[in-house]
Model the fold of this input.
Amino acid sequence: MLKKIIVFSLPILFFSFVLKDKSIVKPNVILVYMDDMGFGDIARNGAQGYQTPNFDKLAHDGIYFSQFYSPQAVCTASRAGLLTGCYPNRLGFSGALDHTAKIGLNTEEETIAELLKAEGYSTAAFGKWHLGHLPDFLPTKHGFDEFYGIPYSHDMWPNHPVTKNYYPELPLIEGEKTIQTNPDQTQFTTNFTEKTIDFIKRKKDKPFFVYLAHPMPHVPLAVSDKFKGKSKQGLYGDVMMELDWSIGQIRETLKKLKLDENTLLIVTSDNGPWLNYGNHAGSAGGLREGKGTSFDGGQRVPCMMAWKGKIPTGLVANNLSAALDILPTIVEATGAKMPKRRIDGVSVLDVLKGNTGANPRTSFLYYYRKNNLEAVRDENWKLVFPHPGRTYEGFSAGKDGMPGGVNENFTFEGGLYDLRRDPGERYNVMNDHPEVVQRLMQIADEARQDIGDDLTKSEGKNRRTIGKIKE
Done:
């Protein structure tokens, strides 16, 4: 389950992750969320045509999760799950909100930022928000002291070749005020990185939490002159190289300020690659399908965490884990209080400590569309239910920013897959393991009673209300 690659020579038992003594300096937390970065988009997972030395070194200097899942395979829902520790459909989220949405994250839900702010942390969000663009739903209403970024995806603007002039001008927001429209997207990665570094320098003397949500490598791709034309994989590789540079800049800043021993750095992605964009899309690394699907290419993403002196170096966690688990892990690491409302995440702090026997998460639910339970996973087994869904297979990919074909309503028959032997989900072994099917069906039935399932017309008892503007 948890494989030790490099032996850590010092014992780690004397480190106390749970800060019961209020006189102890609380750790800083930096959470970096990539957009549409696939499982195969970093060098350690097989990326070709460019190198990602900073991603790879981060994994080497801490822990790399090989079985890590985004909350859902689409932008808004994924972010709702990340920041609240809840399956997004429990909170009423699905899909990706645009400029017409009159909904957003309910103020009764507690985010990582709110929990840490209550403990005296300075908090900031830079980059893409996408949990409601109206004033009542912006980051400053959800525990962030500062916000500098865009309210939704950067393809939601007038210049998108597919939906030209459907969207209004893309706003760049500081705090709650639009300071610019249609900003230069080639500067996104650099600007949001520099804002993050500036915040770290300004808040270095007290605990801080930074949420850096890079808009890239989501289309439309854009890169600064520093990396334009530098890769052998074209613009996508250039963009990945600049994102890698961003990680390096943050780690270098922490080292210079002598904050690296008191900072937990987490890097992951919101979902898998948008495959029908062809050479402007990433790689699922051999996993099936991509963004917008409940197959592993859509939701299994890279995740790495480092905390010098606290997380042993060179660990690979093959334990099942998810972005839902980041909130409770941060809570336990900082000594903060858990949300008052029920969440779905579990702390993986024992795994970070190097506990090879820890197995905090054993199952995971794959929801998509409004509230379709499309699959469940238990340990290495995954049961996919018959469902209509997206498939990229059988279509020519797009090129240079224009999408290729995709079928949004393909009928999947479902099946049982042994992800240990068949991570590509190609060999249905349902007839060979009826006892496994029965066990996973029980997990599914419990989920349907709890959160519901549109595929079986189950309402669910514990779904909560999404935030709505006051009329």
Observations:
- Residues 223 and 406 are 27 Å apart (CA to CA).
- DSSP finds nine helices and 21 strands in the chain.
- The chain has a mean pLDDT of 94.
- Residues 235-256 form the longest helix (22 residues).
